[in-house]
Design a protein that fits this description.
Length: 71
């Protein structure tokens, strides 16, 4: 690995639906976990259309301290 090269490798990921590796991955989901790091789920361009947009976790949760909040 030389420091002089500015050439970057294209991202290569496996599609979660068709299991084919792709150089143009699309993020279709981000999985959050309670302990340890989460992970990102990728799909190829053709399969990405089969996944609905994922809601942002921070906008779905209610702020703490509101009525109905269980402790």
């Amino acid at each position: 690995m030389g420091k002089g090269g500015t050439e970057r490798r294209p991202p290569v990921r496996m599609c979660v639906r068709c299991e084919v590796t792709t150089e143009t991955p699309v993020v279709v989901a981000v999985v959050h976990q309670n302990s340890g790091p989460g992970f990102v789920v990728y799909a190829c361009q053709a399969c990405a259309a089969h996944y609905p947009p994922q809601p942002d976790v921070l906008t779905v949760l209610r702020p703490s301290g509101q009525a109905g909040d269980e402790r």
